[in-house]
Design a protein that fits this description.
By secondary structure, this protein is mainly α. It has one domain. The chain is about 60% helix and about 0% strand. It has four helices and no strands. The longest helix has 20 residues. It is elongated and about 90 Å long. The protein starts with 6 loop residues before the first helix and ends in a 25-residue tail after the last helix.
């Protein structure tokens, strides 16, 4: 198993766990808006995991796009609520950092890179008989 292939997903899942801990410990009360944000973060973690690592073109930013969309949705829902609490600010901040991290961590494709090698034909040695 190549851990580098899962680096973006592991980063996002770790920061999703940190977000959950921050939400639970920030004010000892988990409000409905915070639960919705946690659900969005969990969906974002699943999305980052499911999007494949593609090495070329615009597709290589797929995981980053999912993470940025998740952070944006959390921010929008928090700002549209009845005021933003400290734990919601922390959720928005951690989601933004997770999105930045997913974009920064390099892709490592599961598809092995195959190098072509020019074959050199060596004649068989002749018998000295």
């Amino acid at each position: 198993m190549n851990i580098g292939h899962y680096a973006k997903s592991l980063l996002y899942i770790a920061l999703a766990a940190v977000t959950f801990l921050v939400t639970a410990l920030a004010d000892s009360v988990i409000e409905t808006q915070e639960l919705i944000n946690l659900g969005i973060i969990l969906a974002g973690a699943i999305g980052v995991y499911l999007v494949p690592n593609l090495p070329d073109s615009v597709a290589k930013y797929g995981k980053g796009a999912v993470a940025v969309a998740t952070a944006a949705l959390i921010a929008i829902l928090s700002f549209l609520g009845d005021g933003i609490s400290t734990s919601e600010w922390l959720q928005v901040g951690i989601a933004a950092l997770a999105a930045i991290g997913v974009v920064i961590v390099p892709n490592e494709s599961k598809i092995p890179v195959v190098a072509t090698v020019d074959a050199v034909v060596v004649p068989a040695p002749e018998d000295a008989h």
